[in-house]
Each structure stands twice: as structure tokens, then as C-alpha cells.
Amino acid sequence: MLNRTLLMPSLSASLFYKEIDRLQPIAFDKVFQFEKFNALCNGFVHLGRYSDLRNRTGVYELQKGSGRKWTVERDLDQLKEFSEDSFNGYEVIRIVGKNPFLWHDHWPVKDYARVFECLVLVDEIAKEADKVVSKIREVGKEMRSKSQSSQSGADPDSSLSQPVPYVAVHMRIEIDWMIHCKKLEQRLNVSEICSSKQEIMERVGNIVGLKSPLVIYLAVADSLLEDSSILAGWKEGLLPVEKKKLSVDGIYSKYPYLIQSAIDYEVCSRADVFVGNSFSTFSSLIALERTQKMIRMGVTRSCGVSVRWPSYAYNILGESNGPHKWMTNMSDSSLKAISYGSNIISC
């Protein structure tokens, strides 16, 4: 509506366990391909660089309203006002205030999700994710080969010509999350937010249709983890691995916290099965991206059917005491359907 370029945002980690060295912002183009974003989102949103500004002092601050009385209509009226000629003299309009952009319930999901179609990781991060995924599948291949060779008369290579599948679990049990989720449960009077290590292991082990032996990649922020026993106690036939066991911790240690998260996000997104927490933004956006993949393949509902990119929420009980199936409702008129901070997950 303003017919303006969006100045390239910086990205920052959101942690409740405040450790300053992990909260340093990173430029958008250090994570995502800048020109690729503009090409893919042409006609929808356009990014610009601060270095392209002619006059950085010519800034007008647009104060957004907040609270229950601030409606969709008031949002739109304010934007119409700022699209008038009288504001063209300002090179930059800075939108400020709590929730400075339109409230989440103003956005249709399909519009919001378009942005994610335009986000392509820079080559460096994508290649690091390639290495991690290759290592996971390599461990899975060795595991299956040993299992088959131990069976009488089995051909060790009979089912290993295709990439060996793996499950990615966003195991949210780190310090920052446990502080946050317990407070959230108390505030919302909801019990389906925090999940213990034991609950996660049991529910993942009960996913209907999982064929063992199978590698389980645990996406966890190692530096924020107090429990060192996350690899113990899993169901027979499931081999849990994390960065150290995979010997890929050296890949992650080269980068700041946010880039490590970007690599893990990509590894989880590519997994054959993904299991996360519906109250986690990280998990919810992966479920959204995997829903988009299914839709591109012609699948509109994953509930009760076998699909290529299944996702589950382990904090919500599903069939056979497993995690609940998860698919984003892309036709919803409200961003609440994206489901982060919710136990309503479409299926």
C-alpha cells in the first residue's frame, strides 16, 4: 500500500535464556540470497539495502497502534494516510511500536507463506547442511547394512540403492525453552506445551509406520542443554544421533548461534519425517514449509494418509500414543493457523 521498498532487515535469535553472545544480529544477506529473494518475490515484496539510501536523516516515524481497540480498519486507514503525496518527501518511513507490522490475525496464511517461497539459503549454509544430511544418511546406510547382513540369506545391498531415510526431532528441552514453556503453561493454564525427554522418546517411538532400523537426528542447541543423556533410552531399532555423535560439531562450531540454527532448520526441513513442538516458532515454520512442499506435490490433506513429507507435534498426543500429525491450514484467513503458540495444528 505504501509502494515502498522494505529495507533489508537484520536477523536475531530470540532466547529467553539471555546470553548476549548468542543474541548478536546478523545481516539478512548473510543467511539468505538477497537477489534471489527479490526475483522470487517480484511483485509481492522488494528488499533494498541501507547503503542505497540517499538521505539517511530523512526518516519519518510511523507509530503503530496496539491493544484490543486497534482494528484491521484502523490499520488500513493509517496506511492509506501514509501513502498520500504529503509523505513522499520522506525517503524512509520507519514503522515503530509494539508489533509494528499488521497484527498477525490480519494476515491470510497463504499471503504470509509466500515470503517463505522466496527465502533461499546462501550457498555456504546450504552446503554445510548438505554435509550434515549426507552424514546422517551415511550412518543410516551403515546401520541398515549391518542389520540386513545379520539376517540369514539377506542381500546387504538389496534396499540401499536409494537414499536412506531419517527422522529429525526438534528436541526442545534446552534451558531457555524449559524456562519459557513452564511460564507459558502457567499463564495459559495449558498442559500440552512442555515435553520431557522421556515423553518425546516414547511418542516418537510410537509413530505408526516407522520402519526400523532408523536414524533419529536430534536437533538441539547443545550449548543450552543441561541433560547429557539424550541419546539413551530410545526404542530398539531407533538410533539417535546429535552433532557430536555424527562428528559434525566442527561444522557448527565455526558459526554463530543463528547460523547454527539455520543449518539445523535446513536439516530438519529435508528430513523424511519431522517431529517438533507446536508451541515452537522453529518447529512451526518447518511444518509450514513441509506443508508447502506437499501442496506443490498435489497433496492438500495429510491427516490419515501416507504422504511424502509428514510432520508431527510430540507435545500433543496422537494415535497409538504417538505424536499428533501436523499440517498447516494454508487456507485459513488468520495467521493463528500457522500454529506457533497453539495446540490447534490442523490435523
Automatic annotation (TrEMBL):
InterPro entries: AtOFT1-like, GDP-Fuc_O-FucTrfase. It comes from the Eukaryota. Keywords: Carbohydrate metabolism, Fucose metabolism, Glycosyltransferase, Transferase. GO terms for molecular function: glycosyltransferase activity. One of its GO terms (biological process) is pollen-pistil interaction. PANTHER family: O-FUCOSYLTRANSFERASE 23 (PTHR37220). Belongs to the glycosyltransferase GT106 family. This is O-fucosyltransferase family protein. It comes from Salix purpurea.
